[in-house]
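Q: What does the assembled structure look like for these inputs?
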Amino acid sequence: MGIFDFFKRKKRIALLVDGPNVIRKDVNIDLSVVRKKVSTYGNITTAEVFLDQYASDKLIHAMKIQKFKPVFSKGDVDITMAIRAMEFVFDKNIDMIALMTRDTDYRPVIVKAKELGKDTLVLGTQPGFSVALKNTADYAIVI
Amino acid sequence: MSIIGNCGLFGLNDSKKHIALFVDGPHIITRRSNFDLNLVIKEVSKEGKVKIAKVFLDQYASDKLIEAMTNQGYDALISISDIDVALSVAVMEQLFNPAIGQIAIMTTSRELAPLFERVKKHGRKLILVGASDTLDNQLKAIADDLVVVKHRIRR
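A:
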């Protein structure tokens, strides 16, 4: 680390989680581990988890305890999450967009975020973590 | 460059009338239903100047279709998966473009309702485009305006 690194501001990160895609009973995800891994890239200034109408009260409560703000969608969450991500892309107070999803559908968000100068990070689990997403984002983490 | 032409004070800066038009290919261009997309641009142009016209297609779109779209004045954008997110990203980008005052979306898919609501929240005029018998009621209720175009139904 060079002397000037001490003066660099830490990246401000918006972390968005695709609930139905990555938070499943058969996959044991510890969101505190997710936070820790993302925090190596900077400060998480906002953490939101996108849930559909099937999310249980237990899950919603668990998200709040982990300091993830639940955002609810009537149908598929992908459009709601993509719209929110795009608002962060145009937010001058955010430097990095981090998406936790395995779904290729979000690739256009990553492409646009990069075009407009944001850093991008994708996190996902195997199996089924989109190769297109991993190869498009600046950084990819397999949880 | 003309001073008057650049002066918003005299109301001659008409970017409020500039339209970005987005077409949901998989829901609009189907085997059953045939729209003249050139006519769609003409009809939407009655609301203002169409400055952006994009059609979103999936990976099964043929070369002929892509060529036809381009010839009719559209940017044809191909997605390897569901086009909804690609279309939403493109619309969201235009909400932050001061050169565009109106957003027109041609779709029958209620899944795009959150996008419609967000466009309205950003203060842009929202136009729903489609055939009278296929326009979704929820989307109609959110949109500011409707542009109805005819289509041929293949039996």
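Confidence is low (pLDDT under 50) at residues 1-12 of chain B.
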